[in-house]
């Protein structure tokens, strides 16, 4: 056997399909950004989310189990149980905002944070026009202490 | 019980102040043993360079031990607290997750009673502590610019300042237009390779742990050197009690490791378990000689807890500011509203720190939880335009308000909550005082003014305000003083009741000051360690 680890996904295909409808209520896209389901139709980013936050799975499933239209269910959840709504929204936005395409469209760097080494002279470049002079010229601002 | 091998110095805790003392004393030739309930932290586990970093920070790497819920953390009973307490247990302690902002208090902080008629004066002065601040600047790889007019003259930090970035520059121009103080940030983050620390590459996620090995944390800056000089760090070792001999001297500690009880004998014991953990251990260390807890003849162990309820104030700007770039850390700081002005309706003040904005998920919180904007529509059609207009377009102040001591704010032992070894959890009793509320409200309004002056088109309290998050600044619970009736330790950090028992963490603060506390914790730890090293021959020891 090869060392292939087959693990069950946190959500099955039907659950993911249903979740996509809920996710699009929260994040329908616009202003140059895609909707939640558009960037994660198969739930791969949600899978990554639940891998590090498995405690959020029950929150998602509890919401999916409710009868009614997703927008109404979420509206009721927000009004009646804001803490649970926050967890649901955290999972949806957490998966969405990890997505590389979304981050690029938002102007946030790459799939993960990127190193930004300091360039020679960079520190000085912000200060060398005398911007600190006004602060220095006002003199000391600490109180003298009686002996 | 085991380990009759007697340590010259036993340090309870393996965090920030413990690292400072362990290095100093081991280098001075003492046989040092540290007991740390957590483990060594692997740099590869630090979440900052992983795409899931914000999700991990919300749970496994949260600064709140109740959210992390790890075996090596002890829970905190918050049933009578308005505010959570933040800390981290592991080698390096809270320096693993701190922001490494490195300000000193002002000289007035040590004379609050004399100048403002509140709280108490410290038994030591700024000038007395200044050489130890300067020594710690060297040990923690501090970057900054000398000559700050908020402080008396002194030696400049060893490394040049980090760039103040576009955000710092933009705000500096706004502050100048108001005639307000600002100064390039002083951070324990090296702008160049320095000793064991690599040059900062500005991930901007210092409070999630540094994945690059740049930010000063004592697992990098101190403990490896202490080990080279023979110090022994025992991890997974949770101290249950500091023990006393028949002469009333500390002679070691009982600790639990892997579910079994052990004993470490020692001639001198130093408590370095944080402003929460240290009073907890003292209160657990009851005996016939000390029925109310060790070193507690004053009744002040655990009392006068100060937590620095913080606030963040964010502004939105039209231009692209790359607001995620680090350090985090501060770009610039301001002491404009630090000193008392009674006409404002409160005493004392606060330091401001201009910081990066971390990741996009944090910005969701800014919109959905920030007072003043949380009522606005966000989810649905508003999500995309709000996120597009804010990511990369924000400037953020973090505000540290001085929190004055009150005996009603305190740490006791929880009657119901236990840690994973069955020891009582600390119970936090904390209410934000009226002075602190007024102080914070004033500072927030002035921070709004600064955003307006810098050209922001919208500004609000972007998340934490006061009690909604912790600060990690846990101080005051074993205060320093000359009078044994009104303090727990003397001017050297030695407990009044037990002459070979010292405390070197934030517990000993007389007032909380209005700045980040770690530089002062480190300076005090260095000073106490120096005192012990210089006076050990004359010590009464607990063998």
Characterization of the model:
The complex is a heterodimer of chains A (147) and B (543). With 147 residues, chain A is an all-alpha fold. Chain A has a domain of 94 residues. Chain A is built from nine helices and no strands. Chain A starts with 12 loop residues before the first helix and ends in a 10-residue tail after the last helix. In chain A, 32% of the residues are buried. The mean pLDDT of chain A is 93. Chain B is α/β, with parallel strands linked by helices. Chain B has one domain: FAD/NAD(P)-binding domain (3-Layer(bba) Sandwich), CATH 3.50.50. Chain B has 13 helices and 16 strands. In chain B, the strands form three sheets. In chain B, strands 1, 2, 5, 6, 7, 8 and 16 form a seven-stranded mixed β-sheet that branches. In chain B, strands 4-10-11-12-9-15 form a six-stranded antiparallel β-sheet. In chain B, helix 1 links the parallel strand 1 and strand 2. In chain B, helix 1 packs parallel to helix 13 and helix 5 crosses helix 13. Chain B is globular and about 70 Å long. Chain B starts with 6 loop residues before the first strand and ends in an 8-residue tail after the last helix.
């Amino acid at each position: 056997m090869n060392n292939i680890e087959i693990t069950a996904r946190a959500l099955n295909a039907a659950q993911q399909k249903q979740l996509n409808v809920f996710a699009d209520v929260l994040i329908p896209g616009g202003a140059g950004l895609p909707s939640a389901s558009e960037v994660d139709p198969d739930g791969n980013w949600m899978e990554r989310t639940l891998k590090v936050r498995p405690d959020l799975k029950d929150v998602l499933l509890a919401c999916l189990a409710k009868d009614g239209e997703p927008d109404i269910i979420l509206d009721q959840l927000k009004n009646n149980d804001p803490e649970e709504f926050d967890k649901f929204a955290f999972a949806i936005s957490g998966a969405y905002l990890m997505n590389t395409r979304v981050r690029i469209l938002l102007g946030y760097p790459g799939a993960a944070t990127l190193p930004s080494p300091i360039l020679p002279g960079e520190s000085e470049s912000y200060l060398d026009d005398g911007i600190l002079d006004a602060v220095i010229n006002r003199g000391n601002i600490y109180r003298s202490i009686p002996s | 019980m085991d380990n009759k091998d007697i340590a010259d110095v036993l340090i309870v805790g393996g965090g920030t102040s413990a690292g400072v003392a362990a290095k100093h004393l081991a280098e001075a030739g003492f046989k040092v043993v540290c007991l740390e309930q957590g483990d060594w932290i692997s740099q590869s586990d630090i979440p900052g360079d992983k795409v899931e970093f914000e999700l991990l920070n919300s749970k496994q790497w949260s600064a709140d031990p109740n959210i992390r819920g790890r075996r090596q953390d002890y829970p905190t009973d918050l049933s009578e607290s308005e505010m959570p307490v933040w800390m981290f247990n592991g080698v390096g302690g809270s320096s693993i997750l701190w922001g490494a902002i490195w300000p000193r208090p002002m000289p007035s902080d040590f004379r609050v009673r004399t100048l403002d008629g509140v709280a108490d004066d410290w038994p030591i002065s700024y000038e007395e502590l200044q050489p130890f601040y300067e020594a710690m600047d060297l040990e923690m790889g501090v970057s900054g610019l000398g000559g700050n007019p908020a402080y008396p003259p002194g030696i400049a930090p060893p490394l040049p300042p980090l760039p103040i970035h576009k955000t710092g520059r933009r705000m500096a121009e706004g502050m100048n237009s108001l005639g307000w103080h600002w100064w390039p940030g002083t951070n324990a983050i090296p702008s160049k390779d320095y000793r064991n620390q690599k040059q900062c590459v500005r991930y901007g996620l210092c409070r999630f742990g540094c994945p690059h090995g740049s930010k000063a944390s004592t697992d990098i800056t101190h403990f490896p050197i202490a080990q080279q000089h023979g110090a022994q760090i025992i991890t997974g070792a949770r101290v249950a009690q500091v023990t006393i001999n028949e002469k009333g001297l500390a002679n070691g500690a009982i600790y639990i490791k892997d579910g079994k009880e052990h004993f470490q004998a020692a001639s001198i014991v130093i408590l370095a378990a944080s402003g929460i953990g240290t009073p907890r251990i003292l209160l657990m260390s009851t005996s016939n000689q000390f029925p109310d807890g060790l070193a507690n003849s004053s009744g002040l162990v655990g009392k006068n807890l100060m937590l620095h309820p913080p606030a963040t104030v964010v502004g939105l700007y039209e231009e692209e500011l790359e607001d995620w770039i680090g350090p985090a850390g501060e770009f610039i700081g301001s002491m404009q509203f630090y000193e008392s002005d009674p006409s404002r309706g409160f005493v004392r003040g606060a330091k401001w720190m201009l910081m990066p904005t971390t990741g996009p998920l944090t910005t969701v919180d800014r919109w959905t939880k920030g007072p003043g904007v949380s009522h606005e529509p966000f989810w649905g059609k508003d999500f995309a335009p709000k996120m597009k207009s804010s990511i990369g377009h924000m400037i953020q102040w973090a505000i540290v308000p001085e929190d004055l001591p009150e005996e009603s704010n305190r740490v006791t032992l929880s009657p119901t909550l236990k840690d994973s070894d069955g020891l009582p959890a600390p119970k936090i009793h904390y209410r934000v005082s009226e002075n602190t509320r007024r102080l914070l409200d004033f500072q927030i309004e002035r921070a709004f003014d600064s955003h307006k002056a810098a050209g922001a088109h919208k500004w609000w309290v972007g998340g934490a305000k006061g009690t909604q998050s912790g600060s990690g600044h846990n101080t005051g619970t074993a205060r320093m003083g000359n009078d044994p009736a009104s303090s727990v330790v003397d001017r050297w950090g030695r407990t009044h009741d037990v002459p070979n028992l010292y405390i070197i963490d934030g517990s000993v603060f007389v007032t909380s000051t209005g700045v980040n506390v770690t530089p002062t914790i480190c300076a005090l730890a260095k000073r106490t360690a120096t005192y012990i090293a210089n006076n050990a021959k004359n010590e009464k020891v607990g063998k």
